[in-house]
Design brief:
five-stranded antiparallel beta sheet, about 525 residues, 14 helices, alpha+beta
C-alpha cells in the first residue's frame, strides 16, 4: 500500500486539488455513476482518484486523467463507453498490485468500477449492479448469435470448432445427423475451411443423397486472440438469379445470332457487353477484339479507322454527342443514316436505358435506299411525261379527293393543288370549274360519276370557259375506282351569252355536242 501511495504522489500530472489516499487504497471497489458527464454518485474513499472536495461537473475528466497514468487505453475505452455504450474491462498496475477497471452502460447511467485484482484467486470484486449489466449484455449477445440466420462458428488455432450458433448446428444436423451436432468438438460443414485465410469466398455443399446443392458466402475474420470467426450467408436465391440471368442472356444471344441487324449493347460502365455476328459482318471488326469488351468511344474510333462510318466535320463533337445520348437515361434516341465510301448505307439507331446501358443497332439499308432512289427517279420521269402533254389532267380517289394533277391543269385553271393547305375534294374542284365556265349539266353528271361504285364507262363532252375558250372534257374510270378528268383546249368560240341564256345539252352519249336553246336548264 505504501508503494501505491508513493506512485500516486510521484505521478507526473498535476492535480487541481488535494488528493487523499486511505491506508487500504483498494480494499473495497470504488464506484462512480455518471449521467451525461455529470457525477451523480460515488462510493467512499474516491479521493485518491479525483480531487476533493469532489467537483461533480469535472469528475469525469479528473477520473480519466488519474486512470490514464495507471492503465493503457483507458481514454479510448471511456470515450467508447460514453459515445456508443461499449462496455469494457481493462487491467492495470499500481506498483506491485494489479487493478481492474470495469465500465458499463445502464440505461442513461454510466457505471465505472475500480477494484483490486487478486492474483491468487484470479477474481475481481465488483458491485451487483455492474454484474447485472454485464449479465444482461452477455444474454443479449448470446441471443443475437443464436437467432442469426447466417451460419456462424469459431475455430481455434488448431482448426477445431469451439463454438457454433443454432443455425450452424441445425444445418449440420440436417446434413450429417443429430449425433454430429450434439458432440464436441462439433462436426464440420465446410471441411476445407479449417486453414483458409481471412476474406470472402463462395462454397457449395451437397446433401447426402446428392440431390440438393446449397450455396453460401463465407466471411472469415482475422485471428482474434488466436481464434477465427466465420459466418456463412445463404446464397441460393442469388445463385439462382445469376443462373436465370445467364440463361436469359444465352437465349438472347442465340436469338440475336440470326438477326441481320448488327447489335451492340454497352453496359453502364460503357463497355461492350453483348454483340451478335451480324455486327462483325457489317463493321468488319475483329470478333476477338470485340470479345475484349471495348469502351463505346474506342468502338467508334475503330469504326472510323476502318471507314465504316461517315467522316463528320468535327469527329470529336460528334462522338461527344453520342456520349451525351448514353447519359440521357432513356429520354433521348440517336438515329442517323450513314452513307459510306464503299457505297453502302447504314441506318444506325442508339437507344439509352434507365440503368445507364445503351443499345446500338446497325442495319444495312443499301438495297432499300437503291429501290427508293430508283422509284423516286421513275416518279420524277413519270411526272415529267405527265406534265409534257397538252391535256390538263386531274385524278380523284374513290372518296372524291384530288390526288394527282399536272402542270397544264395548274396553268389552265390557275390552281395548283400541290400547294393547297387543305385537301381538295371533287366538290371543290367542280365548283372552281363551274365558276369559270358557262352553265352546263356536265358538272352534276361528273359529281355523280366520281362518287359512283357501279360499273362505269368513259365519256366525253365539251364546255365553254367564260373567256370563250372551248374545252374538250374526258372522264375515264381508272383501276381502284379512281377517276381521271382531262381538259383539252379546242379553239376559241364566239363570245358567249350571259350565264342565264346559255346551256349545254347533257345527253348521255359517248360524244356530246354543245347545243343552244332558248330556255335555261342549269
Amino acid at each position: 500500500m505504501a508503494a501505491l501511495f508513493a506512485i500516486l504522489l510521484l505521478a507526473p500530472r498535476v492535480r487541481t486539488g488535494p488528493v487523499h489516499a486511505p491506508d487500504d487504497v483498494l480494499a473495497e471497489p470504488r464506484r462512480f455513476i455518471f449521467r451525461d458527464g455529470y457525477l451523480l454518485e460515488h462510493s467512499g474513499g474516491a479521493g485518491f482518484l479525483i480531487p476533493t472536495p469532489v467537483d461533480h461537473l469535472t469528475a469525469w475528466e479528473s477520473l480519466e486523467e488519474a486512470l490514464a497514468d495507471l492503465i493503457d487505453g483507458i481514454s479510448d475505452a471511456l470515450n467508447g463507453l460514453r459515445k456508443d455504450g461499449r462496455a469494457f474491462r481493462l487491467n492495470g498496475t499500481m506498483g506491485k498490485d494489479r487493478m481492474t477497471v470495469l465500465g458499463v452502460r445502464d440505461g442513461e447511467l454510466l457505471r465505472i468500477t475500480v477494484s483490486a485484482a487478486d492474483r491468487a484467486q484470479d477474481t475481481v470484486r465488483i458491485d451487483q449492479s455492474t454484474l447485472d449489466s454485464l449479465t444482461r449484455d452477455m444474454a443479449n449477445l448470446r441471443a443475437a448469435a443464436e437467432t442469426a440466420p447466417a451460419l456462424s462458428w469459431c475455430q481455434d488455432e488448431q482448426g477445431q470448432i469451439i463454438w457454433a450458433n443454432a443455425a450452424y448446428r441445425q444445418r449440420l444436423a440436417e446434413q450429417k445427423g443429430e449425433a454430429a451436432a450434439s458432440v464436441w468438438p462439433i462436426g464440420r460443414i465446410f471441411p476445407e475451411e479449417a486453414t483458409v485465410t481471412a476474406g470472402s469466398l463462395r462454397r457449395k455443399i451437397t446433401s447426402d443423397d446428392q440431390m440438393t446443392s446449397l450455396w453460401f458466402e463465407l466471411t472469415i475474420s482475422e485471428p482474434v486472440s488466436g481464434n477465427r470467426y466465420i459466418h456463412a450467408t445463404p446464397l441460393d436465391k442469388v445463385v439462382r438469379a445469376e443462373d436465370n440471368l445467364r440463361n436469359f442472356i444465352q437465349t438472347l444471344t442465340k436469338t440475336f445470332a440470326h438477326l441481320p441487324t448488327g447489335l451492340a449493347i454497352f453496359d453502364r460502365d460503357r463497355q461492350l457487353a453483348l454483340f451478335n455476328p451480324a455486327l462483325i459482318n457489317l463493321t468488319d471488326l475483329d470478333g476477338a477484339w470485340l470479345s475484349q469488351r471495348p469502351k463505346l468511344a474506342v468502338f467508334f474510333d475503330h469504326l472510323r479507322e476502318r471507314q465504316r462510318l461517315p467522316e463528320p466535320k468535327d469527329y470529336k463533337s460528334w462522338r461527344d454527342s453520342l456520349t451525351k445520348l448514353e447519359r440521357t437515361e432513356g429520354t433521348g434516341t440517336y438515329e442517323e443514316t450513314w452513307s459510306l465510301a464503299s457505297g453502302q448505307t447504314f441506318r444506325v439507331t442508339g437507344r439509352p436505358h434507365a440503368d445507364g446501358a445503351v443499345a446500338l443497332l446497325i442495319e444495312d439499308i443499301s438495297a432499300e435506299i437503291s429501290v427508293t432512289r430508283r422509284f423516286r427517279a421513275e416518279l420524277e420521269m413519270f411526272q415529267s411525261v405527265f406534265d409534257s402533254g397538252d391535256e390538263a389532267i386531274v385524278v380523284f380517289t374513290p372518296a372524291g379527293q384530288l390526288t394527282l394533277s399536272n402542270a397544264r391543269y395548274s396553268e389552265m385553271w390557275e390552281h395548283d393543288p400541290r400547294f393547297s393547305l387543305t385537301e381538295v375534294s371533287a366538290a371543290d374542284a367542280i365548283a372552281l370549274w363551274k365558276e369559270n365556265s358557262a352553265p352546263s349539266p356536265v358538272w352534276g353528271e361528273l359529281r355523280d360519276f366520281v362518287g359512283s361504285l357501279s360499273k362505269r364507262a368513259e365519256w366525253f363532252d365539251t364546255i365553254i370557259l367564260r373567256d370563250g375558250r372551248m374545252l374538250h372534257i374526258r372522264v375515264s374510270p381508272l383501276a381502284g375506282s379512281m377517276t381521271l378528268v382531262g381538259f383539252l383546249e379546242k379553239g376559241k368560240a364566239p363570245a358567249i351569252a350571259p350565264p342565264d341564256q346559255v346551256i349545254v345539252d347533257a345527253t348521255p352519249t359517248k360524244k356530246r355536242k354543245q347545243k343552244t336553246s332558248a330556255t335555261s336548264s342549269s
